[in-house]
Design a protein that fits this description.
three-stranded antiparallel β-sheet, six-stranded mixed β-sheet, binds adenosine-5'-diphosphate, single chain, 227 residues
């Protein structure tokens, strides 16, 4: 599982409550997180405060080991903080798995979160069609993940994260496993999705990737710097 998680860019989503412009979707105050390793404790996040507004496209930029994934996991409610306050759009989180199921085709992978919410198959497919079209996957809905390029697989993962109309799209190193052109495609797609009103938070170690976001914050040794 860990190996798969390392290979695949992480995308998860919080459930959208309602569309209110200019509201804070993420409010973090003085978040601390340590990992205990035997008798040692590693202080990974140090009084991290961060606010993200609806409609923002934020990059969290930092070198390997700076605490990006730890922060992202707390934002996505896949991990818990030791202390601090975290408010996410005032709603419960729905966690969306982001690796593709190899035996499912594109359509089955994309509709799965809707089916898991109890939506019927026909309605789930109907609901997903706009997203599938928007991501240019209409011609690929019957294909299995191993019949797709890395960039196409990435778009399926993004489509699956989007079908449930998330409040925030969280992307962990979205271009990390991709060749240069596929990486550019994904960044262009994120720009388009953001222009359409989607709130995006991505983490990256690459300044050239971070520059595509509307706002960049840096994380160095577990501390956040805005500039
Ligand atoms: P980044 O995503 O910026 O590379 P991480 O958040 O993955 O950074 O890791 C920050 C630090 O915390 C690193 O030193 C890493 O080794 C350590 N770390 C991450 N996860 C764990 C864990 N589950 N147990 C112990 N240490 C961890």
């Amino acid at each position: 599982m860990d190996a798969v998680m390392d290979m695949e860019p992480a995308i998860c989503a919080a459930t959208k409550a309602e569309s209110i412009e200019n509201t804070d979707v993420i409010t973090m105050r003085n978040i601390n997180k340590s990992y205990r390793m035997g008798t040692q404790s590693l202080h990974v996040l140090k009084d991290v405060s961060l606010t993200v507004k609806q409609g923002e496209y934020l990059a969290i930029l930092g070198p390997s080991g700076s605490g990006k994934s730890t922060l992202m996991n707390i934002i996505g409610c896949m991990d818990v903080m030791d202390s601090g306050n975290y408010l996410l759009d005032g709603v419960a989180i729905e966690q969306v798995t982001y690796f593709l199921i190899p035996t499912y085709n594109v359509l089955q992978n994309i509709v799965m979160p809707l089916l898991m919410r109890g939506m019927g198959l026909a309605e789930a497919q109907e609901t997903s069609m706009d997203t599938i079209d928007m991501l240019g996957l209409s011609q690929r809905i019957g294909h299995k993940p191993n019949e797709l390029s890395g960039g196409q697989q990435q778009r399926v993962a993004i489509a699956r994260a989007l079908v449930g109309k998330p409040a925030i799209l969280l992307a962990d190193e979205p271009t990390g496993a991709l060749d240069v052109n596929s990486g550019k495609e994904v960044l262009k797609l994120f720009e388009n999705l953001n222009q359409m009103g989607n709130t995006i938070v991505m983490i990256t170690h690459d300044l050239n990737v971070a520059k595509h976001a509307g706002r960049v914050v840096r994380i160095v040794d577990g501390e956040i710097y805005e500039n």
